[in-house]
Design goal:
The complex is a heterodimer of chains A (305) and B (528). By secondary structure, chain A is an alpha/beta fold. Chain A is built from 12 helices and 12 strands. In chain B, 47% of the residues are buried. Chain B has 2 domains: 238 residues, no CATH class; 170 residues, Alpha-Beta Plaits (2-Layer Sandwich). Helices cover 46% and strands 9% of the residues of chain B. The chains are: A alpha/beta (305), B mainly alpha (528). At the A-B interface, helix 5, strand 4, helix 9, helix 10 and helix 11 of A face helix 9 and helix 21 of B.
């Protein structure tokens, strides 16, 4: 576990330097992409999910900036519910498929996709359309339905959450791409990038019992995803996170991409129509300096298609 | 006799096919099998089919009828080829004879008083409203319980082990199962029954089928009058006794050259081994039976009567269907507030009907994707022993799923239309504010509301000084369907802050009202 912690810290350091990659290529990358020319965050709107992602990733320097040849990539969408894509309870399958494809194009050796679902996992994987999209794109869909896939990690900087069991793919992969769907959430106000990380741990009840918002922020102190891609194509405006019917859903055609998990969540919150400081876990994460929710301090690329 | 070898081989292959398919349905670790295929394989199972027929008369439920008619023509085909418990006993008996036997099988006298007393007790108690005796003795349901409670844990354990090995090789096509079905009472009963059946069949073949099994006893009555039957040709038989040594039903008396066809399970072993064409399987030649020598027509007459009885029996069964339908529409009884009732699966209409029609075969338990269906101990009282109940600590009922209703062979759980299933209220959630994290800790939780598929459990503003933005659950019992998602997700220990109290009679929930969302944002720009 020591070694893993070390690698994780290496990744975090990479993020701070604005290069975000595995340990070892820092100097080389910093030379290729001077930090001052890069955006902290990209917001795209009015396109299809695949097109918006391609535009966003291009403006961030291309997928090759995040995924090196031969690396193992884990993509973590929200596949929490046994609902069809139109219900917007899960990440858009087209987006997940495109991300998998772009990772493979960039030379990834394997691209894995999983979630610790709320509804029956096999039904979620199937009916969300994500299982098929991943397979079609050449990725590997992996179960997350039993405790044996999860391994204990320590969270020394956590306030409420001091340890957790995390899916082995998060521990063993070189690159971690977090792909939440933007939606209303009855417990966490909104479900965004940080909230989506609840799907990489086994015991979520502990979080609910021990100050949910603090726990959400605490896990980010352990590991930040390489990249966060927030799917705002279809947005569940109420009755989240599961939704009751398609009447809860508005087609917004938006997308936020950023390596700064707090900034990404703050921007998506604004799109939803709320204020970042009103979402407790965003505020806490900002105060814990896990990222920046003050969007006016960031360099943002705004793309309309 | 050589010409009957094919018949015997056919019987063996058909019985093994049924045994294999039924076992696979119960053991299937990755749910490969479709619900339609399950329906086809389980269709001929006698007791489930009979119960199904008694609830709704349909071709789908005519399996028992077909085998009653087949019995009148050819003998107890069900017992020889279709009943999985019968084949299991044959395997025990075969292993014993093949590898251990000191002594071959031999003729035993019929235990008619015992078997018909049990049959009468089962029938009487069933119509008096106690289906427990039928459930405990039904061969198919017992086989199902053996597979579901003993076989399935072993298979899942092995399949998880294999999945773990594959996982190390970076192969993920075999998922692991998070098995929650280890229930002491059901495991104990299934083990006890397996030992009993093993012990009985080890050296006495189909003893269970001809002393205890109510299906065996009932079909035995019909097979007394079968058209085609096995008999010993008094001239050709030289009393060598080969047939008797392989007769699993122990019903061939070589001394008197009589075959007790009511106990015969039509395995055709005797025909195969007979060296002298003495064992015959052909049209019931009444003349050869001394009793009927003076009344040549009596046999045919009786057979006609029996066939009439079959149809009367099914007519009676369908009558009961009519009666129970009226019962289903009765005014709902009130649930005592202080008494917790466990919910029955959607499609079971009421506790009364469910307890009555379920034989506890645990097929639904085996196929349920969330494992919310678990074998009961005393959740329904003694009379519902081992019948599945909705265990909201093991899982919750998947909103879109109706698999239990689709596979249930007795129709104790009826198949519901998707929209009907989503409105069927099997129970209602009750919120205990004093247990809730929001109340005790003043932090957000909402796990219950998150999982609620109808938002019957909704988070509403919670007035308090410490954290004014907090919300707390509120239950709308009109739209709650009692799926148990809230109870399952609730993180408080040891008592949950929200639980589902079962409905004695299922109700129809209101459809959640969905207003259109008015889009405020029309500007084509970014808010930052």
């Amino acid at each position: 576990m020591k070694r893993r912690d070390f690698i994780v810290q290496g990744v975090s350091a990479g993020l701070v330097a604005g290069t975000a990659t595995g340990f070892g290529n820092l100097a080389q990358l910093a030379a290729a992409f001077p930090a001052q020319n890069l955006y902290d965050l990209v917001a795209v709107r009015d396109g299809e999910p695949e097109v918006m992602f391609d535009r966003a990733i291009a403006s961030l320097g291309g997928m090759a900036r995040y995924v090196k040849k031969g690396q193992k990539v884990v993509v973590k969408p929200n596949i929490g519910w046994d609902v069809v894509p139109e219900r917007a309870g899960n990440t858009n399958p087209k987006l997940v498929g495109r991300i998998v494809k772009r990772c493979l194009d960039a030379g990834a050796s394997e691209v894995y996709v999983f979630d610790n679902t709320c509804d029956a996992w096999n039904l979620c994987y199937k009916n969300s359309g994500i299982e098929k999209a991943v397979k079609d794109a050449g990725g590997k869909i992996v179960p997350g339905n039993t405790e044996s896939y999860y391994h204990k990690i320590l969270i020394p900087k956590g306030v409420s959450l001091k340890e957790a069991k995390v899916h082995e793919l998060i521990l063993s992969s070189d690159v971690f791409i977090n792909v939440p769907v933007l939606k209303h959430h009855s417990s966490a106000s909104l479900s965004l990038s940080m909230k989506n990380l609840m799907g990489i741990v086994w015991d979520r009840r502990y979080w609910h019992r021990n100050d949910l918002h603090q726990c959400i922020a605490d896990l980010v102190t352990w590991k930040k995803p390489t990249l966060n891609v927030i799917d705002g194509y279809r947005v569940m405006m109420r009755n989240g996170p599961r939704g009751v019917s398609t009447a809860d859903v508005v087609t917004m055609k938006q997308m936020i991409v950023s390596a700064d998990i707090v900034a990404a969540d703050a921007a998506a919150t604004m799109i939803f129509g709320s204020k970042p400081e009103d979402i407790p876990h965003i505020r806490i994460a900002h105060e814990m300096k896990l990222g920046n929710m003050q969007l006016d301090k960031l360099s943002i690329n705004r793309i309309k298609i | 006799m050589h010409k009957f070898r094919r018949l015997r081989n056919l019987r063996i292959w058909v019985s093994l096919a049924f045994l294999f398919l039924i076992s696979f349905i119960f053991l299937d670790p990755v749910q490969l099998i479709s619900q339609r295929f399950i329906n086809v394989v389980i269709w001929p199972q006698f007791v489930p089919s009979l119960l199904h027929f008694s609830v709704s008369v349909s071709f789908l439920a005519s399996g028992f009828l077909s085998f009653m008619i087949l019995t009148v023509f050819f003998g107890r085909i069900y017992c020889s080829s279709v009943c999985p418990l019968g084949t299991l006993q044959d395997i025990f008996s075969w292993v014993h004879r093949r590898f251990f036997a000191q002594k071959p099988l031999k003729y035993a006298r019929a235990r008619n008083i015992l078997r018909y007393t049990i049959l009468i007790l089962v029938i009487v108690s069933f119509f008096a409203g106690f289906s427990i005796l039928l459930n405990l003795l039904d061969p198919y349901s017992n086989y199902g319980r053996i597979m579901s409670n003993l076989g399935r844990p072993l298979v899942l354990k092995s399949s998880n082990g294999l999945a773990g090995l594959l996982e190390q090789q970076d192969i993920f096509w075999l998922p692991k199962s998070n098995f929650k079905g280890l229930r002491t009472a059901s495991i104990a009963f299934a083990s006890g029954f397996l030992l009993l059946i093993g012990w009985m069949s080890w050296s006495s073949g189909r003893l269970y089928c001809n002393t205890i099994c109510p299906v065996g006893a009932l079909l035995g009555i019909f097979s007394r009058f079968s058209l085609f039957r096995i008999s010993l040709d008094k001239q050709a038989c030289n009393s060598c006794g080969q047939c008797s040594k392989v007769c699993k039903a122990q019903c061939i008396d070589v001394k008197s050259k009589e075959v007790d066809f009511s106990r015969c399970v039509t395995c055709y072993n005797c025909l195969d081994v007979c060296p002298s064409d003495g064992a015959m399987y052909n049209l019931n030649r009444i003349k050869s039976e001394p009793v009927d020598d003076f009344h040549p027509d009596k046999g045919n007459q009786t057979r006609r009567n029996i066939l009439k009885a079959v149809f009367l029996f099914s007519a009676f069964a369908s009558l009961r269907a009519f009666a129970t339908r009226i019962k289903g529409g009765e005014k709902p009884t009130e649930i005592p507030e202080d008494k917790k009732l466990f919910a029955t699966p959607p499609g079971s209409s009421s506790h009364e009907l469910f307890n009555r029609n379920c034989t506890a075969c645990h097929l639904c338990v085996s196929v349920c994707p969330t494992q919310v269906l678990q074998p009961s101990f005393l959740q329904y009282g003694l009379q519902g022993f081992m019948q599945p109940f909705m265990d909201y600590h093991a899982g919750f009922c998947n909103f879109e799923c109706d698999l239990c209703g689709q596979v249930c062979p007795t129709n104790a759980i009826q198949e519901l239309e998707p929209e009907q299933k989503k409105l069927t209220q099997v129970g209602v959630a009750h919120f205990i504010k004093e247990n809730c994290v929001v109340y005790t800790d003043n932090t957000d939780c909402g796990a219950c509301s998150e999982h609620c598929p109808t938002k019957a459990v909704n988070m509403v503003p919670y007035q308090n000084d410490i954290n004014p933005l907090l919300t707390i659950p509120e239950v709308d019992d009109k739209i709650c369907i009692g799926c148990g998602a809230c109870e399952y997700a609730c993180p408080t220990k040891p008592y949950r802050a929200i639980f589902v109290d079962g409905n004695a009679i299922h109700k129809l929930a209101d459809k959640p009202v969905q207003e259109e969302i008015k889009l405020i944002e029309t500007e084509e720009d970014f808010p930052f």
